[in-house]
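Checklist before submission:
- one chain only
- standard amino acids only
- sequence pasted in full

Submission:
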Amino acid sequence: MRLKIVAGAVVLAIGAGIGLTVWLRNRTPVVAQEILREAAAEGKRSLGKSAEPLVEIFNQQATQGYYDDAMATARLWGADAPSQHRLVVNLMWIRAENGDIQGARNMAASLTAPQTKAWAIDAIAEVQAHRGDLRGALETSALLPGQSPGCHVTVTVAGIEIKDPLPGAVRAIEAYAVHQLNSYDIEGAITTAAEVRPCSTPDLLTRLAYAFFEQGRKVRNMVSPIANRKVAAEFLAMVDERGRAQGVKVYELNPCDTARFEAQIGRFADAYHAIDHTTCLVSDVAVKQYPTDPTAAEKALRRSTNRDDLALGMAGFSRAAAKKGDVAGALRFLTAAEVAGADADAWPKTDVVRDVAWVWTIKEGPRPALRWARSRPAGSERASALLGVAQALAHPRPRPTP
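Returned file contents:
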């Protein structure tokens, strides 16, 4: 009798402990940073098969300002893996884009691989230049260690005089010219390019020449203020060469291209007619039709006998439904894509589960989506679904329409 009482007490205690754990878990706030860490752990398990979910998780951590976590994710790749070095440089870029220039500089200074450190510093300077902060970009570029001797000229850009600019400074000035070009300051861009040309390659001038040609500008009047006539002549020759290379090209569309074009402009009957009795993908048309006529789009897609086409279309419907805030529809189409029997690489499954988790979190809160995310069968799916939850918690993307 006593044993039964003890056993019963143990069962009750275990049950109470489980119940308390569940209660606490349901009461504990869901934090995006912790979800992203969990997603990174799941992504690590599937790294050998696919790196894409882990790269997206890294980008989200960096974008949301979890820089140390993003660095830890980047280091899940081997120390000699090019991916690690590329992601580390991207981290400095994103941190600088977020406005934390000093934090990005400090993080770059802590790097031990010389080449990665140099790329990281260059990236920070480029961000500053692209934002129009040439002085700050030059200060950052001066942090580059072991630069070769500078170009023996004096360059004046944006009222700043730079004597014997080092290679890092030259790249910063070139990036500033791109900023001017993107800001529609064409005259300023060509003036900057002309100033720095004695120290740089022709690449910047070529880019500007193409931009001038595409915009139909009267460049001969533009280059008249350039003091260096050799640079002016070089630039004009590039523009002329671009003009000679540009000819009228005639493309003959195949039925698949025709269908995509017709669908893009909303002529769906013509699009379906174009692919009738062909091997073109019905999903190319149906996914474009879904936002305006989901019933007709689904009916057309289900007539396809191509399993890959069917899965790809259902995946597209799922993402479109998620964009509209239709959780039930997104889940239904995801299931339809899964049961289509398509090849594993035929449709973007991880993207779909991420979008489903994202909209589910926004519409109903994180807990139902988290339970679903953790129940996904593959590590890459769990990682992507958890990423969707974290994205929704931070709302870095537009909310779906009600």
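Reviewer check: Residues 2-27 form the longest helix (26 residues).
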